[in-house]
Design a protein that fits this description.
Length: 463
């Protein structure tokens, strides 16, 4: 079972870390955790950490002089003054148990991130059930082009900063704001973006109203110190914000908003549009596909406008964005078919990605999906069935358990049956690869999709 956030607050963490010289990161291989470990290390702390398996991220940290352990053992934390953990770890993880026995400070990832960001002038948080990493990356490009010298903590790697984090000046802090277990309520945004709202994380959120209450608490953090940036086309977002007394800046395509995309045109799924704000009207040409990226671009532009960046440089930054890691990322070509990898793991995300791919002119779309967690698969089962029907050939691999155990009686095999006769199920990556290697042909687009280890599948393709 996952561990709750600590909610110590920035002042509480400052007191807890007073005179401390070393920090241990439990779950250091995660995107955000590895970024926080790096930031802590460059601020002069001794840093170490562990994860279940090693990865290129942990290898990069090791090359920086950070102590990395594979697997979890209690004695690995000996000699460290504090522990930062991700809520995905179990309460009985040996280092966590040992830290509590020793009485050293124990801090959750989101609490620690809030502590790190509070000293910055502009704290730009990108939240929403979908698109956070892409919008954070796009906002990063806007600030880089605009001379904002941002410090960035993202949930996806971006080639222009050679990773998922960047250390910049003390003015602008751009960060991905995760809603899971109300993590974002430990943050201190001066600009709080909400891209979209719907039900997800059903192992934590009881219903959609619960989700809305959490997002409302998130934007309330800007009252008196900043601005909420809201998607005017998302009914749940606007309902969440009813009666909000703080500053609001809206963006959208359909409904009237403060910042709008008008005269949108598409070429092979890639949009260009007029960015309109007051008397400003600038033509934007994106380099990434899909209508959802128009919304991400509007959110990024709003952040740049609020922080005083020049409009021409905002437009340049939007065009500079070439995509983030695992967001419709081209991996190679197999038998003339293009192979992409995508992080989508919610029905809405799957549908958006498949709509985008169909705009790209594929003769056949093969979507290899790995469901992420039993609770999400069961809680949104019918939605998954309908979304995956959009692929010409949906292929299901076994559910990636992540932090859960199988107690809900749901399976990928049953999901494939309910999708229909064109759907396939295989019980191993090797069998999926064998099928793809023999059946892929020119004009196909092949998608590996999900938030688990499905990203490794393409290594088995004959590319």
């Amino acid at each position: 079972m996952a561990v709750n956030n600590t909610h110590l607050g920035a002042d509480g963490i400052a007191r807890a870390l007073k005179n401390k010289k070393s920090v241990y990161f439990l779950g250091i291989g995660g995107i955000t955790m590895s970024s926080l470990a790096h930031v802590t290390h460059i601020h002069g702390f001794k840093v170490g950490g562990s994860d279940r398996t090693l990865s290129p991220l942990t290898e990069r940290l090791a090359n920086e002089g950070i102590e990395i352990f594979e697997g979890h053992k209690a004695e690995q934390i000996d000699g460290y003054d504090a522990l930062v953990y991700t809520v995905a770890v179990s309460a009985d993880t040996p280092e966590l148990v040992r830290a509590k026995e020793l009485g050293i400070p124990v801090i959750s990832r989101s609490d620690y991130l809030g502590y790190i960001m509070r000293s910055y002038t502009h704290r730009v948080g990108l939240a929403g059930m979908h698109g956070k990493s892409t919008a954070t990356s796009m906002t990063t490009e806007v600030f880089l082009a605009g001379g904002g010298d941002p410090t960035v903590i993202s949930g996806a790697e971006l080639s222009s900063m050679q990773g998922a984090y960047r250390i910049g000046g003390k003015e602008n802090f751009v960060f991905e704001s995760c809603e899971y277990m109300d993590s974002f309520l430990d943050f201190y945004p001066s600009i709080a973006v909400v891209l979209n709202i719907e039900l997800d994380h059903v192992d934590y959120f009881k219903d959609l109203d619960h989700v809305k209450r959490s997002f409302r608490a998130y934007i309330e953090k800007t009252r008196g110190c900043g601005c909420a940036v809201l998607n005017a086309d998302d009914e749940n977002v606007m309902d969440m914000a009813k009666g909000f007394g703080g500053s609001i800046l809206t963006f959208g395509v359909k409904n009237e908003a403060d910042i709008m995309a008008k005269n949108i045109s598409y070429e092979n799924g890639v949009a260009s549009f007029e960015l309109c704000h007051g008397t400003m009207k600038k033509r934007v040409a994106l380099s990434v596909s899909g209508e959802h990226n128009v919304y991400n671009a509007l959110a990024a532009a709003a952040c740049g406008i609020l922080c005083g960046l020049k409009s021409d440089l905002i437009v340049k930054g939007l065009g500079n964005f070439r995509g983030a890691s695992r967001r419709l990322e081209l991996k190679g070509v197999l038998n003339g078919a293009k192979v992409y990898d995508d992080y989508a793991h919610h029905p809405t995300e799957i549908a958006a990605t498949l709509r985008t791919v169909k705009q790209m002119g594929a003769s056949r779309v093969i979507c290899i999906y790995q469901p992420h967690t039993y609770s999400r698969t069961k809680g949104l089962y019918r939605e998954f069935v309908e979304a995956l029907k959009m692929a010409d050939t949906p292929i299901l691999s076994d559910i990636y358990a992540a932090r859960e155990t199988d107690t809900l009686g749901v399976s990928s095999e049953q999901l494939a049956k309910d999708i229909g006769e064109n759907a396939l199920y295989f019980d191993s990556f090797e069998k999926i690869a064998e099928y793809i290697n023999s059946s892929a042909k020119e004009g196909d687009i092949i998608l590996t999709m999900g938030a688990g280890n499905i990203t490794n599948l393409s290594k088995l393709f004959n590319m």
